[in-house]
Design brief:
The protein is of the alpha/beta class. It is built from 14 helices and 16 strands. The chain has helices at residues 17-28, 53-61, 65-69, 99-112, 157-161, 228-238, 240-247, 293-313, 322-329, 331-343, 349-359, 361-372, 377-380, 383-391; strands at 8-13, 33-37, 50-51, 73-81, 87-96, 116-119, 122-127, 133-137, 142-150, 172-181, 188-191, 200-207, 210-218, 249-252, 256-260, 275-277. The chain is globular. The structure holds flavin-adenine dinucleotide (FAD). Flavin-adenine dinucleotide binds next to helix 1, strand 2, strand 10, strand 15 and helix 8. This is Geranylgeranyl reductase.
C-alpha cells in the first residue's frame, strides 16, 4: 500500500448512514478518512424515516443512540395489516426521525471522530490494488486513498465502473410525503392493502402531528402503468386510517421518491483489490418492508473493521473475507423477509396468519422476535413455520 502522507487511508464515497458509520469507525480507529458526498449536508433523502431495532442496536453499540433519540420520536408498537385488513400489533422499539436530521447527526459524529467531509461527486475510481486507489471528481480534480469505500446507496454508477455491479435494476421503488394532520396515532402502520397490492403502504407518525406516509412496489411486479402517486392516493383513500388522516389534514409536503436495492444482492461487496462497498450499494435493504438503515450501517461496520485490519496489515488481503462475512453474519436475516415478500399476496394467507396471531401470544411474540432480531426469521416465515402457526 502507498505510504505517501498525502494519500488518505480511506476515501468513503457517500455520507448516508452506511458511509457515515464506516467513516466514524475508521476515524475512531485513528485512520485518515475522507467522506465525499455529492450533496451538501443536511440533505433530505426519501425514506419512511423509521429506525427499527437493528438500527437502534447499532447506534447503541457506537454510543450514538442517545444523541439520535434526543431528536427523534419513540414508539413501542408497529401494526401490520394484511390485504383484507386483518392486523397484528407487534411490540417493539422504534424511532422516527427525518433523514435530513438523522444523516446530519451521523455525519457530525463521523467528523467529530476525525473524518473530513467534503462535497463532491465522484465519477470514477481506479483500483490499483496494493498501490491504492485514485478517485476522480466531477468538474476535475482527483484524490488518492489506500482504500476506497463505495457507499452511494441505490446509485450504482460507481459500482458499474468498478466492475462490481451484478444487477443494474433496482429491487423496488418507493415514494413518501409528509402529511400534517390532527388525527391521533400512537404506532407505526404498514399495510399490504389489497387495493395497492403488489404494492405496500405505510403511515409513520413523526410526532407533533406530522406523518410520514408512503408506498412502494417491487420493480419485478411493477408495470409501465404503475403510477406511485396514484397508488398513494388510492392507499390514502381506501385504507381507513389513511382516510382518517386525510380528513384531519392541515397540509402536505412535496412527494419524493427513491430506488431501493434489496436482499444483499445486486453487487459484489469487494472489488477484488482496494475497493469495497457498503450499505444499499450492496443491496442491504430488507425485502418486504424496505427497512434498510440498520442493515446499511451493519454492512458498514463489518466493512470498516476489515478495512482497518487491511490498513494495519499493510495489504488489502483482509478485505477478501468481506463478502463471506456479510453472507455468514447477515444473509440469514433476510430469508424470512424474502419468503414473506413472496407470500404476502397469496389470497388470505397473511390475514389468516395475523388473525391467528391476535389469539396466540406466542405467534405474536414470534413476529416481535423477528423484527427485534431475537428469533430466526426462517423459524417464523417458512413452510413449516407457517403450517405450525396456522394449525397449532
Ligand atoms: C421511500 C423509501 C422509504 C424508506 N423507508 C425506510 C424506513 O422507514 N426505514 C429504513 O430503515 N429504511 C428505509 N428505506 C431504505 C433506506 O432509505 C436505505 O436503506 C438507506 O438510505 C441506505 O443507506 P445508505 O447509506 O446505504 O445510502 P443513502 O442513504 O442513499 O446514502 C448514499 C449517499 O451517497 C451519496 N452519493 C451517491 N452517489 C455519489 C457519488 N457518485 N459521489 C458522491 N456521493 C454520492 C448520496 O448523495 C447519498 O448521500 C426507505 C427507502 C425509500 C426509497
Amino acid at each position: 500500500m502507498p505510504t505517501d502522507p498525502e494519500v488518505w487511508d480511506v476515501a468513503v464515497v457517500g455520507a448516508g448512514p452506511a458511509g457515515a458509520i464506516a467513516g466514524l469507525i475508521l476515524a475512531r480507529a485513528g485512520r485518515r478518512v475522507l467522506l465525499v458526498d455529492r450533496r451538501r449536508f443536511p440533505r433530505d433523502k426519501a425514506c419512511g424515516d423509521a429506525l427499527i431495532p437493528d438500527a437502534l442496536a447499532l447506534l447503541a453499540r457506537y454510543g450514538l443512540l442517545a444523541r439520535v433519540e434526543a431528536k427523534a420520536a419513540r414508539w413501542t408498537v408497529g401494526t401490520v395489516y394484511g390485504p383484507y385488513r386483518m392486523s397484528v400489533d407487534i411490540d417493539t422499539d422504534l424511532l422516527t426521525i427525518r433523514r435530513a436530521v438523522l444523516d446530519a447527526e451521523l455525519v457530525a459524529a463521523a467528523t467529530e471522530a476525525g473524518a473530513t467531509l467534503v462535497q463532491g461527486m465522484v465519477t470514477e475510481i481506479d483500483d490499483a490494488g496494493e498501490s491504492g486507489t485514485t478517485l476522480r471528481l466531477a468538474g476535475g480534480g482527483e484524490l488518492r486513498a489506500r482504500l476506497a469505500c463505495i457507499a452511494t446507496g441505490a446509485n450504482v454508477s460507481l459500482l458499474e465502473r468498478c466492475g462490481m455491479l451484478e444487477r443494474p435494476a433496482p429491487s423496488a421503488v418507493a415514494i413518501r410525503t409528509y402529511v400534517h394532520s390532527d388525527h391521533p396515532l400512537d404506532r407505526l402502520v404498514v399495510s399490504f392493502d389489497r387495493h395497492i397490492l403488489p404494492g405496500y403502504g405505510w403511515i409513520f407518525p413523526m410526532g407533533g402531528g406530522t406523518f410520514n406516509v408512503g408506498c412502494g412496489v417491487v420493480t419485478g411486479t411493477a408495470t409501465p402503468d404503475t403510477d406511485l402517486r396514484a397508488m398513494l392516493g388510492v392507499f390514502l383513500d381506501a385504507f381507513p386510517l389513511g382516510r382518517a388522516l386525510v380528513r384531519a389534514e392541515a397540509r402536505r409536503e412535496a412527494v419524493r421518491g427513491a430506488l431501493l436495492r434489496y436482499g444483499l444482492t445486486g453487487a459484489r461487496p469487494h472489488g477484488g483489490g482496494a475497493v469495497f462497498a457498503v450499505g444499499e450499494a450492496v443491496g442491504s435493504t430488507y425485502p418486504l418492508t424496505g427497512e434498510g438503515i440498520g442493515k446499511a450501517m451493519e454492512t458498514a461496520a463489518i466493512g470498516a473493521s476489515l478495512a482497518d485490519a487491511a490498513l494495519r496489515a499493510g495489504t488489502t488481503t483482509p478485505l477478501a473475507a468481506y463478502s463471506e462475512r456479510l453472507a455468514r453474519e447477515l444473509r440469514p436475516k433476510y430469508a424470512g423477509y424474502e419468503a414473506a415478500q413472496r407470500w404476502i399476496a397469496v389470497p388470505g394467507l397473511a390475514d389468516a396468519l395475523f388473525w391467528r396471531a391476535r389469539h396466540r401470544p406466542r405467534l405474536r411474540a414470534a413476529f416481535s422476535g423477528m423484527l427485534n432480531e431475537t428469533v430466526e426469521p426462517s423459524r417464523v416465515i417458512s413452510p413449516r413455520g407457517l403450517l405450525r402457526a396456522l394449525l397449532a
